[in-house]
Amino acid sequence: MRGRGTSxxxxxxxxxxxxxAGALTGAAPASAAETPQSPAGASATMGGLxxxxxxxxxxxxxxxxMSAGLFEMSVDGGGTLQTYCVDxxxxxxxxxxxxxxxxxxxxxxxxxNAGRIRxxxxxxxxxxxxxxxxxxxxxxxGGLTEQDAAAGTQxxxxxxxxxxRVDAVDPQAEQLADHLFKSARDLPEPAASxxxxxxxxxxHPGELLGPVTVHTDAxxxxxxxxxDAALSGVRIVGKDGKPMTAAPDGAKLFFAVPKDAxxxxxxxxxQASTTVPVGRAFTSDSRSQTQILxxxxxxxxxxxASATWAVQGPIPALSAKEDCVKGGxxxxxxxxxxxxxxxxxxxATYTVPAGAPRTVTxxxxxxxxxxxxxxxxxxxxxxxxxxxxxxxxxxAPALTTxxxxxxxxxxxxxxxxxxxxTNLADTGGSALxxxxxxxxxxxxxxxxxVLVLLRRREAERG
Length: 462
Hints:
Blueprint: H1 5-14, E1 35-36, E2 43-59, E3 62-75, E4 80-85, E5 97-101, H2 114-122, H3 131-137, H4 146-161, E6 166-168, H5 171-183, E7 194-197, E8 200-203, E9 208-216, E10 221-224, H6 229-232, E11 235-237, E12 246-247, E13 252-256, E14 264-274, E15 281-284, E16 291-296, E17 299-309, E18 316-323, E19 328-335, E20 341-345, E21 348-352, E22 357-363, E23 369-375, E24 381-387, E25 443-446, E26 449-452, H7 456-461
Parallel strand pairs: 1-24, 8-17
Antiparallel strand pairs: 2-3, 2-5, 2-6, 3-4, 4-16, 5-15, 7-9, 9-13, 10-12, 10-14, 11-13, 14-17, 15-16, 18-19, 19-22, 20-21, 23-24, 25-26
Helix pairs in contact: 2-4, 4-5
């Protein structure tokens, strides 16, 4: 098996044409505003590897030493997340944007050991910050440092997330890794910090469009109405028609659209402050390795839902989810109109009968970017973008790398003289990453470290 870091970096260049979908009925006017896909839950920016030790990965007959431990991310709107890597053979990029994602949208969705990873997170550092007690539980004499605890925890996770043959360098860290790996038990996926279900609704003017149900572990959430509510007259209300400005878990929200409103669309946003549940996955559309949450401060989380309305004709509500079990993106259309809704997707035509839902899976290759826009009546223009990231290994050619002990910010440039043969194309928590070798050879330094391509010819010249 070979690492796939190179294929991930090259994917955008190799895919010259991305998928586009357009409705065949009710074309949107050119001036219609586009409604982007909105992640639900916490969104954050990768800061880098913060607390770590060393590990050795045994792969393809070679050994490679790398960093292993806790990453730190800054939450949009306030808050800090601590995460471990569940994507060893792919690169981590400093400043990459991440968003909370269901396990089904990651490699964890098809991993029968995903629940054991959550158990490890709940029974080790930093959730267990009494290192003396953690050492005693693992039968470790001599105590544990934070670095040992982080490295041992990451090693145990890699054994389940990637099926990796990996050991911690420090004896105490290795003993902790063995203890966690052998003790782990299956646990269910944790609930999302905040989601709206469904993320899109539709109907006729004069009706209450919904419900949109709030799911959150926060004590309460703030509801923001559509940006143009004062002009459109659209209000966010409860089932009784009274305005909703706050929403606890389980609250049902409706778009109250004036009876005389012209066909159109609107969006509401719900925001809350909470600690994100341990075990939630985080993915990035910039091809930075998948992370799993180990700890959270009080953080800002948000989610959006949209509504479409018209007097007659097809009235679709559109949403999309990446599905790693199916190997593609599930695009769902719910038609609340009185005429069929017809759209095209990757060269095929699909029809959603009046009053019915339909889900179409758009198959994608691993690492393939997608950019799908579906247009519809009432100026609806829904765009879904991302990169399918479902596997921890792919088919990229093996690369020879040099490890660097200290992680540093992402840069490009430089060269290497030493050689360390390996089949690893990247380092998940090792913070190493490959750079495609062509006519130019460079250096990419990733949020937890550096992975350098060898310049064999230059080295031979001395």
